[in-house]
Amino acid sequence: MERKDICSIGDVLRQAIEQNNMSGRLAEIEAAAAWPSIVGQHIASMTLRPYVKNGAMTIRVPDSGLRQELTMNRSALIREFNRIVGQEVITSLRFTS
C-alpha cells in the first residue's frame, strides 16, 4: 500500500469528527466538563457531574437551597457555558434532586 498524502494526527481526527457528525456532541461534553470552572470547586463538589443531551444539561443537586439558587441563575449559567464552548450548545438547564 502506497501513501498518497502525509497528514498530521490532528488533521485526521478533525476529519473523522466532521465526517461522523460528532462536533456537536463533543461541544456538549466540553460544556459539561466546564461545570467546576463556572460554579467553582465547592459548589461542583456538592453536585453530581452534569449530563448533556440535545442541548439540555441536567445536573443533580441534592441540596434544595443550592438547587433554588442555581435555578434563579439559570440564564447566566447558560450564557457562560456557551461563551466557554464558543458556540450555542446549551439551550436549557435542569436541576434535579
Explain what the structure shows.
By secondary structure, this protein is α+β, with helices and mostly antiparallel strands. It has one domain: DnaA, N-terminal domain (GMP Synthetase, Chain A, domain 3). The protein is built from six helices and three strands. The protein has a three-stranded mixed sheet. A hairpin with a 2-residue loop joins β1 (51-53) and β2 (56-60). α2 (23-33) packs across α6 (74-85). The longest helix is centred in the C-terminal third of the chain and has 12 residues, at 74-85. The radius of gyration is 17 Å and the shape is elongated.
CATH topology: GMP Synthetase, Chain A, domain 3
Count of extended strands: 3
Overall structural domain count: 1
Question: Number of helical segments?
Answer: 6
What is the H/E order? HHHHEEHHE
Question: How many whole angstroms does the radius of gyration measure?
Answer: 17 Å
The assembly state of the depicted protein chains is single chain
Characteristics of this structure?
97 residues; alpha+beta; GMP Synthetase, Chain A, domain 3; three-stranded mixed β-sheet; 6 helices; 55% helix; 13% strand
Q: Would you summarize the structure shown here?
A:
With 97 residues, the chain is of the alpha+beta class.
What does the secondary structure layout of this molecule look like, with pairings?
Elements: H1 9-19, H2 23-33, H3 35-39, H4 41-45, E1 51-53, E2 56-60, H5 64-72, H6 74-85, E3 92-96
Parallel strand pairs: 2-3
Antiparallel strand pairs: 1-2
Helix pairs in contact: 2-6
